[in-house]
Amino acid sequence: MTPQGSQLVRLADGGILQVSVDRPTCVGSGMCNELVPALFRLDDSGKTRVVSPVGAVVRGDVEAAAEVCPVAAIGIIDAMDRE
Amino acid sequence: MTVRVFTGAAPRPDQNLLAPELVRDPHPYYAALRDHEPLHWNERHHAWLVTRYDDVSSLLHDDRLSSDTLGPYLDRRVAEADRERYQESFNLLRQWMTFADPPDHTRLRMLVNKTFSPRRVRELRDHVEQVVSLLLDDIFAAAQDSADGVADLHQGLAYLLPTMVTCALLGTAHADHDRLRTWSEDIGWLINGGLDVPDRTERAHRAVLDLRNYLDPLLARLRQEPGDNLLSDLLAVEAEGEMLTHDEVISQSIQLIDAGFKATVSLISTALMLLWRHPDQLERLRADPSLAKSTIEETLRFQGPAQMVARWSRADIPLHDGVIPEGQRVFLIMAAANRDPGRFENPDVLDIARPATGHLGFGQGRHYCLGAALARLQAEVAVGAAVERLPRTSRLIDDEPNWQPTLLLRSLRSLPMAMGAKR
User: Fold this and answer.
1) How far is A48 from chain B (nearest CA, A)?
2) What is the ipTM of this complex?
3) B contact residues 100-139, partner A, Cβ 8 Å cutoff
């Protein structure tokens, strides 16, 4: 079961990540969209939403986005590890 | 829709925002603005004032507002004779992330953001706890040595903690903190709106150039022998290619020194001052130390260091019944938004257990405070430890908080406390 607002993301390495943004915490710094524009979108309220990405996403990029988020609002869970 | 109760008189367009009664307490004035004129032109400061939560929040995300307020200041407010001379220092100031717009802002912020990420900052907790413990020892010793048993918590804790943490993080020598503080204060009179300081532009100009001259040999040394610090990291980026110019390294270093020496200082001493002036809240925190975190969030909402940010309109921006015309100054007043009854219940009541999310104390959007996690950590540890260790009989000496008269940054100048018996 995926919590509301989270997104299952197919990675370039074949694995699957469950990515979420805690909306009340998000301050819309835009760091995550700069790093992974295919996955993180700023909406009209100025906050980030996780969207269904077109094409595969690189694991390191998603991890970097979670790392630089100034309020640690991005959650990542390994839903399926292909390694 | 919120029903707004109109309070007090309509705001005057020539109101001096640094009049003594506003330095003492700006909130009745902010309430009048929110109620009567959510978009208000202040003739004296040549600025549009925006005070309601929804407006401030949405404009913090609005790219029609530029953060480059120093360019217009130099062009319009500085005498032509001085302009060329100030160009050098202003060029360094304008490269701060604070004043940069995309794409420069994005590039710079990506480079330094990692160092200040919540995860990296958590690793500093032990260090911060140790520093706080030692500083409190010194404060007790100073109080015992003094004739009246008084020590200044602003200087002894609120100032020294962020100063020591910033020096360690950046790689500057702690022995230099007095010089760094003076330069940082001189820059502050300009960028934080110390409007009553007549030579503020000249002082900021000299401080920026002095800081550059201070940093140049330090950076040269770190280039030869890199250390485990942020300045070495910035130099590594500079060495990698065209991502960061030498001026940008200097500029970011000055900005980080400046931020580390002022805003967190203010947050810590304001939080302590508020607790000691609200004994019921102080008792609550004593009874439940886990409220330290939300105490800091409530301080940021109720009386945060960042009163407002200045922006410059790049287009006509319609708002309520008016329009902010292109090419004018805008003050987004977070301190007013944080007391908006349309967003916060009983906004003028200090409630240290209030749910934390949503206040604009660190701003929002791309200029959201880079050092937020580090400031939160230091303030939480410092205030938690002070409340635990200061004797119950300790009391503030001043009848009124000793506020510094700057527009953008609200900060105390001192916080003398009588310690009573040592616990």
Assistant:
1) 10
2) 0.85
3) 106, 109-110, 113-114, 116-119
